[in-house]
Design a protein that fits this description.
α2 packs parallel to α6, α2 packs antiparallel against α7 and α5 runs parallel beside α7. This protein has one domain. The longest helix is centred in the middle third of the chain and has 22 residues. The chain has 144 residues and is an all-alpha fold.
């Protein structure tokens, strides 16, 4: 069996800090949803969102699959977590738009699928706080 690689994706060079920013943005978006009013089980919200991120393909999939060290997903409040994550979402989109426009679309789509998967982990419709956080995540992705 032969390996076939997309040479446009594989020729992109991301620094270790770039990769940390992408992982912080993606996994942080899921963490924000779990923290922002998940009723029932925030762990189920985080798990469903993380499973969606693990399904990513292309360069984004490779970066998200790497060992997740160096991410700053700490905070004593949702506001502190958002202070790290929302700018990382915008920075990730900006970085990918410059280096690989198709991967920017892939990253945006991957994060939005994870947001939707996390929201669906709720029993019933997501509450207002979770819906508002999903809107803020989308705005941060589109701000670049």
């Amino acid at each position: 069996m032969t390996d076939v690689k997309d040479h446009t994706t594989m020729s992109i060079t991301l620094t270790e800090q770039d990769k940390i920013t992408l992982r912080t943005a993606a996994y942080g978006a899921v963490s924000l949803l779990a923290a922002a009013g998940a009723t029932g089980s925030p762990h189920k919200v985080a798990t469903e969102g993380s499973v969606a991120l693990a399904s990513a393909t292309g360069l984004v999939g490779h970066v998200l699959a790497e060992k997740s060290t160096g991410m700053n997903l700490n905070g004593k409040s949702v506001a502190e977590l958002a202070d790290h994550v929302l700018p990382a979402l915008t920075a990730s989109m900006s970085l990918l738009r410059k280096q690989a426009p198709a991967e920017a679309d892939n990253f945006r789509g991957t994060v939005l699928v994870a947001v939707e998967a996390a929201a669906r982990a709720q029993k019933g419709e997501p509450g207002p706080a979770m819906a508002d956080m999903a809107r803020k995540i989308t705005e941060a992705l589109d701000a670049a």
